[in-house]
Amino acid sequence: MKARKGKNVYIIGAGLAGLGIASELAEKPTLGKVQALLDDDPAKIGGSFAGIPIIGPVAAALKGLTVQPQDRVIIAVPSASQAVLQTLHQLVKATGFASVHIVPAVAQIIEGDVHLAQTRSIDPLDILGRPPAAIGLKDSMDWLRGKRVLISGAGGSIGSELARQMLEADVERLYLLGHGENSIYQIDRELRRLQADGVGSLCAIVPLIGDLKDRAWLHFVMPRLRVDAVFHAAAYKHVPLMEANPVAVVENNVFGTRNLLDASLASRVSRFILISTDKAVQPLCSYGASKYLSERLVLASQSRAKAQDPDSRYCFVRFGNVLGSRGSILPLFSQQIEAGGPLTVTHPDTSRFFMTIPEACSLVLKAGSLADQAPAFLLDMGQPVLIRELAEQLIRFYGLEPHKDIAIQYIGLRPGERLHESLSSPDESLSAGSDRRIQLLHCPPAGFSLDEVLVQLTPVCFHQPDRPEAYRNRRLLRQILRRYIPSLEENHDESEY
Questions:
Q1: 3-state secondary structure at position 172
Q2: For the chain, how big is the Rg over CA atoms in Å?
Q3: What positions carry a catalytic annotation?
């Protein structure tokens, strides 16, 4: 939490989390002075902790506060439900607090301790969507203890959250691989700050700047890293943007995945987990087609991995949208609200499956521990959410009224977009695993030669002297993909280059 000298801090929750934060602030007075702890427990109200009064009930106590512009409140109730957080958020905003911070949810706390460095500003993700599942992260990550782990796309939304959670898994070394130096710099700096403040193990953090399309570099660096497990989160993901750049998405997502898989196999990496998407199901868009082929590459690599080491496990984890990821709908809606609207929704009936980034990453880590059960997993996404309802909820989060203060405008489906997504295709089957939130996904053979597809795509993505006309040819790319993936949307107006 960033605070200035002399700033008053109020902590809601006089349990272990609240008392821990209060103790830490007492040792760091430049971050602010705790004026009071607020709680609803009659046994605590009227007492004190280290000279700090405990007042309550919370709603009444908040009404009695006189708040200064720079005062802050921390909601230190890790077990709070979304409904409770929503109520508390409304109460503290009505009191006049401009800044509201929260501690991690109980499912994201490994050893039971909460540190000041882990507090963050409350945002719509904390009170929108379905309640996140409680996940025993300590048990889920036992298999990573003492391992060397590489996260590709470590600066992205999923990759960076995997890194945060893995910080507490007692891994020996954590490699943060990314193409963009700024995003890798940010997550590297954040993890080191967390470690300095007592969060997580003192594993070695190693930032790596590299490109998955650079096959030679991957084969050079992987054996030197001596990686035990790879979490492959790197991918181009933005559907409309990738429809405008289809060659780039195939080059990065398909050939980049193949390069990382081949380098991992050559270096005898024992576990490989690909992050996949529901858009790989009967894919309509170029991004979905690239992830479908990536899934197939992982399935093919699993048999190769087991042939060289029976204990090796290569798998993919498929799930739907994550709330708040970069380029996703929630940050866009927030920007549109701050600009005064309107919020742009494709269609009144458009729906998507959603979960929070921390929940998705926790389940990915859990799936990694279950990789001996299957090579493919599907996360329980609950029921799909109407995008227009999400837009209305977000408008209310900002204290405004939908259709009155902020308009909602329907703009129509864009290229590559569906009205509704599916989590699995009709020819796939599901079975229960040892965790009810993670289903085992059974995929039939593709019905085509994966090597043949890659051979045909190669001159489109990489310049071949004998096929100069094929290089970056978007029309040819779509023709090749539709030959093997007929669900891919036709585009009769596709330009050649």
A1: coil
A2: 24
A3: 279
